[in-house]
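Hello forum,

I keep getting stuck at the same step: I have a sequence, I want structure tokens, and every attempt I make locally crashes halfway through. Rather than fight my setup again tonight, could one of you with a working pipeline run this one for me? It's a single chain of 214 residues.
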Amino acid sequence: KVNKPKQKKGDVVFTRNRFFPHTNFHYVEEMHQSEIPLHTHDFGELVFILGGKGVHVADGERYDLQCGDVFVVDDESKHGFIKTEDLHLINILFCHKRYNEIKKEFKDLPGFNVLFVLEPHQRKNHNFKSQLRLNDEQLEKIIPLLKMFTEEAHLALACNNTALESFFKIIVIQTCRFFSENKTKKANKLFKIETALNYICEFKSEVQLQSIFS
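Reply #2:
Ran it on my machine without issues. Output:
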């Protein structure tokens, strides 16, 4: 487990209570994202770059952004955006507690651990070359799902939280499928690590079951 950086006086911190205190999921969409100073937050972000360009600054490193980039920012990272030019992005915000409860459902989904765990932690070593970049056809498929999510969050109708979680799961599943299709050399190494980790977890589960029934 990576230790979270200690907050210092003057640090900018975005909180769930500010953005989505009554749900487990929310969104932020910016058509022309301005520069954002370095900050941390107590929730996770699944970021989709839908147009324009800019530079993502994370943990002292800089990464050029292009249309189609998809990546996760966790609550251990201090990050921000600079040199933005017509940067269009949608951030899917998620509560870590609920995410930790539902991630077991994705244990057999190739690319899930790569997207949410391995790529964020190896971003500096891989110089952002193992991230997912959607092509035009994939963007056409994912954008309607993102729009349905944002519309649901905006309307806040009955069973809103349940609907948002359902859309979140669908978006994650589709994104991970795209990741499996778009493997770069760097990403392929992470997929091999993911396969090994999944095997180890499955083996440990079988050993635990055997000990229970022996």
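The helical segments are 16-19, 96-102, 112-126, 136-155, 160-181, 185-213. If your local run keeps crashing, start a new thread with the error log.
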